[in-house]
Specification:
The chain is α+β, with helices and mostly antiparallel strands. It is 15% helix and 34% strand. The protein has 2 domains: 4-112, Rieske [2Fe-2S] iron-sulphur domain (Rieske Iron-sulfur Protein, 3-layer Sandwich), CATH 2.102.10.10; 133-315, Alpha-Beta Complex (Naphthalene 1,2-dioxygenase Alpha Subunit, Chain A, domain 1). The chain is built from 4 helices and 17 strands. Strands 11-17-16-15-14-13-12 form a 7-stranded antiparallel β-sheet, covered by helices on one side. A hairpin with a 5-residue loop joins strand 7 and strand 8 (80-82). The two termini are 14 Å apart.
Length: 322
């Protein structure tokens, strides 16, 4: 697998933190500080090059990130521009903070190492053909690996048990036969899956047969596109995960809907309810890393998650896997 710093990971909502604020973040196991100057967001290693203090404990002052220990100040581009203990000193380039690339995509701020490219599969996945109204939900901090969370998103056999009355019902727990297909990048997906859903859409109070279309977007993200009947609203859910350790991650969901009357608060409340049902089960799974080479048994209902595991193994993505 390529170096972890080559992967673009979401760190926060696009408007977090606000101008003049800073906060800690993580990119896999690397501690970062995310802050915003008037020029826009910036991401540094969360370590002052002077004595190693956490810059995220500092503050943004006069459009500079100030170290909490000795007050060294860093510009948006990482340059150290002031050492208060030595007035008039012009810090050389070696006194700067280590910087990361940062971009905004899909309502999130993404970061990658300074040498990372924007080529697949490392870049933020593209979203094409989805409804224009989009609502970001989260973040959700989860005490399990990111691949476990992605696999759960792809799994339909748990709907009638974990999400009874919402996404499934105990009198409709059979998983019908379905086909797994791979796109031009080799990513697995399910072009068509039909299921009974007691709440056919996030803003719906009634049940219906729902047509699902799944697509894995990256090792750490996936898309569910669904429509309840011929006249139902076109709706899509995108899961984004960002590992904060081998057995922990942060997750967001983007809900895209064609419903002109959709209420963002209702959509967020629905997603919070669904994930609150998933989270204790996810965090109970052992091992927390996703097994790619044995250790768990499968049934025919698991062909999509099995394909996801095989794809991770084939591309050499092993972080959060065992």
């Amino acid at each position: 697998m390529s170096a972890l710093h080559d992967w673009w990971l979401p760190l926060s909502a696009a408007d977090d933190p606000g101008t003049g604020r800073c906060r800690p973040a993580r990119h896999f196991e690397t501690a970062l500080v995310l802050w915003r100057a008037t020029e826009g967001p910036a991401v540094f290693d969360d370590r002052c090059p002077h004595r190693g203090a956490s810059l995220s404990l500092g503050r943004v002052h006069d459009d500079r990130l100030e170290c909490p220990y000795h007050g060294w100040r860093f510009a948006h581009d990482g340059r150290c521009v002031e050492v208060p203990a030595v007035p008039g000193f012009q810090p050389p380039s070696g006194h700067g903070a280590r910087t990361w690339q940062v971009i905004e995509r899909h309502g999130l701020l993404w970061a990658a190492g300074a040498s990372a490219s924007d080529a697949e599969p490392f870049a933020p996945p593209a979203l094409a053909g989805l409804p224009k109204t989009r609502v970001l939900c989260g973040p959700f901090d989860v005490a399990t690996s990111a691949p476990r969370v992605v696999e759960n998103f792809l799994d339909t056999a748990h709907f009638g048990f974990v999400h009874e009355g919402f996404l499934g019902a105990r009198d409709h727990v059979e998983v019908p036969a379905y086909e797994v297909a791979h796109d031009a990048l080799g990513r697995p997906g399910v072009p068509h899956y039909r299921a009974w859903q007691p709440r056919a859409a996030s803003a719906s109070a009634g049940g219906a047969w729902v047509d699902y279309r799944y697509q894995v977007l990256s090792p750490l993200s996936a898309l569910l596109h669904k429509q309840a009947g011929a006249d139902g609203p076109d709706e899509a859910y995108v899961l984004w995960t960002s590992p904060t350790g081998r057995e922990s991650c942060r997750a967001w969901f983007t809900i895209a809907t064609a419903d002109p009357h959709a209420d963002a608060g209702v959509l967020r409340s629905f997603q919070q309810t669904i994930f609150a049902q998933d989270q204790p089960v996810l965090e109970s799974q052992r091992p927390r890393e996703l097994p790619l080479s044995g250790g768990e048994v499968h049934s025919a209902a698991d062909r999509f998650s099995a394909a996801y595991r095989r794809w991770l193994r084939d591309i050499g993505f092993s972080y959060g896997c065992c």
